[in-house]
Amino acid sequence: MTEYWKSQARKYCEFCKCWFADNKVSISFHENGKRHKENVQKHISQLSKKSAKEFKQKEKIDDDIKKMEAAAMAAYLKDVKNNADLTSQCINEILSQSGSSEATVVVANMPTSKAPPSWEEVKSEDGSSYYWNTLTNETTWDAPDEYISIAEQEKNKLKEESQEKKKQKIKKQQQKQAQKDVHMEVNAHIAREKMRELAVKKDPEPPKKFFDYGPAPRASKPYGSWTPVVNQPVENVDLQLPKIEKELPPPPVVMQPEIIQFKEKRVESLGDEPVEFKKRKFNNPKRNMRQKTDDE
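Structure tokens predicted for WW domain-binding protein 4:
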């Protein structure tokens, strides 16, 4: 049986963004390393910060909704005082019959339920689950006694979405009803105005003015008359600028010619020995003809 080469499997670490051999020794060596542990802690801290930020945004949205509901309730109570619609009139009649005021009207309390646990299950990028405390922003790998699982969180989200959809439907119905009421009021106002116009005697209509249509007649001089151009004298304005005094030219420099004096050197004697002059040889092939000699 022939042998064949088989490549070794490799594993990718999502925290360190690197590849290594997929065996127990390499995996344990990598996971026990300082760099891997630091990257895991960094990833967990980023997840906790992200979840805390989302929780704060959710709290802010809930506070805004509560403020909007309180403002809507205050406006509704104001409308009830003013007998704006049929429901407010019925409420005022009930209050007058019972002899109580608006301050005594209290919404029935909902049945008290147990507070939900503060721990929630969260999935990391590699699929492992850890637990996050929504109150203290603590994270742990160990499962606490009471926590909200991911399935329960999804159910709660679905419930909240259904409640929001119901609220939106109710708001749309209220808006449609309000538009109908406004339309009815406008029609009633128009009908009243028509009845008033019929009751009041109409004044005679003013005579109609007839206007000539078409272009206007052209003027003889559309651009006006000619006027001569007069050159007005220009006034000299004193800008009060600093005056610059004229600089005097430098005095002329007289250059005297340089006088060169030559000194004579006289040789009185050439010594006691007889003077001989060496004769130059031009036919020497070994000597360079362009070489400078001592005689020159």
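Residues 150-201 form one domain.
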